């Protein structure tokens, strides 16, 4: 019915990517546009009219980019997805600390809701996995109400398409990719029972499809320098990696502010 669709626009600006826009993009591949540009342009035009400021297209374009950037910086969450043991919680907890942002770990929130550890629940068979996924969805839904926060998700969170839509609605999705032989499987029953390679085969395509950027984490923080007698440099190296990610996120925000499409 919409095979020739060129553009889908939603006048809503929060969330930035409504379900309507996500469905349109996913099903037709068309351009999508949120209502954020219109919101900003209305404010600029009102100011021009009431203050009698002469029309200046170049200045208007500069203001749109600047204001969009500030709004998106405050509105969008930075969300880590990836395989279990890829470093999402450790790295993005530090990311939030360094940038003074709120940090949410959906696995931790799920455990609080269940009143038990994920390891215990997931080890109890298929019923345990179904119960965990249901509680995980509630934790994700609650986490996505935040704005400008840093969120680390569980490895299987993206298996639920409703979770994917929720995360993308107001999120910059970072795929934390780590070599399979470096993934930590301790305390992760699904990784142990199913196998890391099989899990990766099932999930990698989903991680790549929903993410806005991929970060390769092949590091052992503090390991190499400690081996050469330079002492414990774990914090120094982790901080450097965090700011590397922060620069990538900032460039992505600049691109969003500069782009007319969502």
Topology:
Blueprint: E1 7-9, H1 19-28, E2 31-33, H2 36-51, H3 57-75, E3 77-81, H4 88-99, E4 103-105, H5 106-114, H6 118-122, H7 126-143, E5 150-152, H8 161-169, E6 171-177, H9 189-194, H10 196-210, E7 213-216, H11 223-227, H12 234-258
Parallel strand pairs: 1-2, 3-5, 3-6, 4-5, 6-7
Mean pLDDT score: 92
The helix-strand sequence is EHEHHEHEHHHEHEHHEHH
Q: Which structural class do the helices and strands define?
A: alpha/beta
The oligomerization state is single chain
Strand content: 5-15%
Helix content: 55-70%
What is the CA-CA span between the terminal residues?
A: 23 Å
Biggest sheet strand order reads 4-5-3-6-7
Please describe the biggest sheet, giving its number of strands, its sense, and whether it closes into a barrel: 5 strands, parallel
Number of helices: 12
SS elements, strand count: 7
Low-pLDDT ranges? none
Q: Roughly how many Å is the radius of gyration?
A: 21 Å
What's the shape? Answer: globular
Task: Report on the architecture of this protein.
This protein has 262 residues and is an alpha/beta fold. 57% of the residues lie in helices and 11% in strands. The chain is built from twelve helices and seven strands. It has helices at residues 19-28, 36-51, 57-75, 88-99, 106-114, 118-122, 126-143, 161-169, 189-194, 196-210, 223-227, 234-258, and strands spanning 7-9, 31-33, 77-81, 103-105, 150-152, 171-177, 213-216. Strands 4-5-3-6-7 form a five-stranded parallel beta sheet, sandwiched between helices. Strands 1-2 form a two-stranded parallel sheet. Helix 1 links the parallel strand 1 (7-9) and strand 2 (31-33). Helix 3 (57-75) crosses helix 12, helix 4 (88-99) crosses helix 12 (234-258) and helix 5 packs across helix 7 (126-143). It is globular and about 65 Å long. The two termini are 23 Å apart. The model has no long low-confidence stretch (mean pLDDT 92).
């Amino acid at each position: 019915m919409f095979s020739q669709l060129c553009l889908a626009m939603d006048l809503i600006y929060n969330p930035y990517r409504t379900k309507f826009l996500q469905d349109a993009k996913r099903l037709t591949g068309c351009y999508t546009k949120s209502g954020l540009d219109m919101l900003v342009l209305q404010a600029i035009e009102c100011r021009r009219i009431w203050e009698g400021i002469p029309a200046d297209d170049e200045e208007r374009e500069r203001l749109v980019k600047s204001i969009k950037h500030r709004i998106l910086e405050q509105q969008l969450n930075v969300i880590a997805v990836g395989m279990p043991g890829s470093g999402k919680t450790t790295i993005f907890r530090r990311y939030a600390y360094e940038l003074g942002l709120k940090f949410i770990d959906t696995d931790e929130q799920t455990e609080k809701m269940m009143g038990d550890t994920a390891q215990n629940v997931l080890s109890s068979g298929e019923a345990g996995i179904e119960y965990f996924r249901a509680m995980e969805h509630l934790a994700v839904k609650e986490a996505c109400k935040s704005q400008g926060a840093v969120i680390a998700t569980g490895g299987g969170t993206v298996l639920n398409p409703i979770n994917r839509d929720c995360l993308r609605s107001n999120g910059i999705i970072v795929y934390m990719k780590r070599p399979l032989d470096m993934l930590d499987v301790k305390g992760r029953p699904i990784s142990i029972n199913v196998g890391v390679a099989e899990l990766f085969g099932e999930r990698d395509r989903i991680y790549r499809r929903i993410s806005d950027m991929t970060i390769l984490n092949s590091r052992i923080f503090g390991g190499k320098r400690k081996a050469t007698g330079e002492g414990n440099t774990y914090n120094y190296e982790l901080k450097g990696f965090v700011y590397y990610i922060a620069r990538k996120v900032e460039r992505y925000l600049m691109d969003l502010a500069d782009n007319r499409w969502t």
